[in-house]
Write a structure and sequence with these properties.
The chain is an all-alpha fold and 507 residues long. It has one domain: Amino acid/polyamine transporter I (Up-down Bundle), CATH 1.20.1740.10. Helix 4 packs across helix 10. The protein is globular.
Length: 507
């Protein structure tokens, strides 16, 4: 999840080698102290983690008005189109799930499809990207917690205090059983989506400002000149859905649960974003929506909530934006620690990151490391006087968003390459699932990445002197991972041979 940049926006939100079969190595059996907690997550639990990472309330209140301002009333279609592209990606992604036994998500897919060197490059890029998004998000959490507490309770604490409190809460929930985390995320997610549905239904029942209109879906509005930038924003709004595969070891019947959760997350986000954005257009009317989004983008949802539901709902919405960010932080924290666990299991990362708590079944050392890094970053941002929203949050998030889109494109290509070498599996799955969908998704995701890079100023509010170095981080990190893998192949071939082979389903 990332928000577009605007100095006023933060303040206004205030109201194996290719083809080689996997070989089991060191994964622990269910119930043993060496592995993650087994069989505790169902499809709904995983969907909660994934959708919570997208932070729907924060994305809608903070991004949808900008999408309307840039792209006009056709903005709802951008979210629908993005959902279609990602569903196409999911076709190949979930088809390959049956051949993946590793909990490393993108790392495992890229390794099996494009080779171990590319796989380790993808792993390093994933760790960097998820950390950048999660750690930067503490800036947004600190900012909104500070302003909300000050305005509603009269409690004036500096943003770093709130951010560090968030680090502690996220660490604690990540340290405890994954099942507890799923329950917390489920409650927070229901609350944040619930308040948006209250607004949307109120607008629908009252018929909007001038009666309901389908003009948002008319071709002349869908294909307007500003929709390119809107598509970039909409792809960023889905960040995190691919993490379904991260929870393979903890899922019940993973070969069924992971694909179901992937499709469910994409379908929900695509339809939910489209419906809510269409409703906010109706709240102000086809002509008034663009004017309002341009004049007061971050206050747009609050104004609509007050007008259609009441002031009490606006206050609730402000509180739920803070909890929305907390839910996203926890979801990304869990993703990061499980990447560390997968890499440590294969000796591609320090072994300590693979230690699992004997009682809670969580990678607790990895959680401590990630939380300490986040706390240090918050402290450094505070010391240099960085703006918590417009600099710490937005600048840190941007390379993470680009990195995840690159990883999605690489995973799509990896699916195609994997099935090209495994003809029997490809024949069983069919041409559409193994060739057409993966290739089409790869091309479209490359286009989406280009759109985000092209309009990175929408995310950072900065010029080329900031944006290009942020983008350059992505290829540098990926190539660094490739270089490390090649060095392992030359100096520690036994570790290199183990990359991407751990079977979490073994035992």
């Amino acid at each position: 999840m990332t928000l577009p940049s605007d100095a006023a926006s933060a303040a206004a939100l205030r109201p194996p080698d290719p083809g080689a079969p996997s070989a089991p190595t060191s994964a622990a059996s269910p119930g043993t102290p060496g592995g993650l907690e087994r069989g505790v997550l169902g499809t709904g639990d995983i969907v909660f983690f994934v959708v919570a990472a997208a932070a729907p309330l924060t994305v809608m209140a903070g991004v949808a008005p900008f999408a309307i301002s840039f792209g006009g009333i056709g903005a709802p279609v951008a979210y629908l189109a993005t959902g279609v592209v990602l569903a196409l990606f999911a076709v190949g992604f979930t088809t390959m799930t049956a051949h993946i036994r590793n909990a490393g998500a993108f790392y495992a897919y890229v390794t099996r499809g494009l080779g171990r060197a590319a796989g380790l490059g993808a792993a390093l890029l994933a760790v960097l990207s998820y950390n950048a998004i999660q750690i930067g998000m503490f800036g947004a959490f600190g900012f909104f917690a500070h302003t909300t507490a000050e305005d509603l309770l009269g409690l004036d604490l500096p943003w770093p205090v709130w951010a560090l409190l968030g680090v502690a809460v996220v660490w604690f929930l990540g340290f405890r059983s994954i099942d507890l985390g799923a329950k917390v995320l489920g409650a927070l997610l229901i609350a944040e989506t619930g308040i948006l549905l209250v607004l949307a239904v109120a607008v629908l029942v009252k018929g909007g400002a001038h009666g309901l209109s389908l003009s948002s879906f008319a071709p002349e509005h869908v294909f307007s000149g500003g929709m390119g930038g809107v598509l970039g924003l909409s792809f960023a709004a889905f960040i995190g859905f691919e993490a379904t595969a991260i929870y393979r070891e903890e899922a019940r019947q993973p070969q069924r649960t992971v694909p179901r959760a992937t499709y469910a997350a994409i379908v929900f986000l695509g339809l939910f974003y489209t419906f809510v954005t269409w409703m906010i257009v109706q709240a102000f009317g086809d002509t008034g929506a663009v004017a309002t989004a341009t004049a007061d983008p971050a206050g747009m949802f609050f104004t609509a909530m007050t007008d259609y539901v009441g002031g009490w709902a606006t206050d609730v919405q402000r509180v739920l934006i803070v909890t929305s960010l907390l839910a996203a932080l926890l979801a990304f924290h869990n993703t990061i620690t499980r990447y560390g666990y997968a890499l440590a299991t294969e000796q591609a990362a320090p072994a300590v990151l693979g230690r699992v708590h004997p009682r809670h079944g969580s990678p607790w050392i990895g959680g401590i490391v990630q939380s300490v890094v986040a706390a240090v970053a918050v402290g450094e941002a505070a010391l240099i006087g960085a703006d918590p929203y417009n600099q710490f949050f937005l600048w840190a998030n941007s390379p993470g968003v680009v990195g995840i889109l690159v990883l999605q494109a690489l995973a799509g290509l990896a699916v195609f390459a994997f099935f090209r070498r495994n003809r029997a599996a490809a024949a069983s799955a069919g041409v559409f699932r193994t060739v057409v969908a993966p290739l089409a998704a790869t091309v479209l995701l490359c286009g989406a990445t280009a759109l985000v890079v092209w309009r990175l100023d929408l995310f950072t509010g900065a010029g080329p002197e900031v944006n290009w170095p942020l983008v350059a981080i992505v290829p540098v990190v990926f190539l660094t991972g490739v270089g490390i893998a090649l060095r392992l192949r030359a100096r520690r071939p036994e570790v290199y041979a183990r990359l991407g082979t751990t079977e979490v389903d073994a035992g």
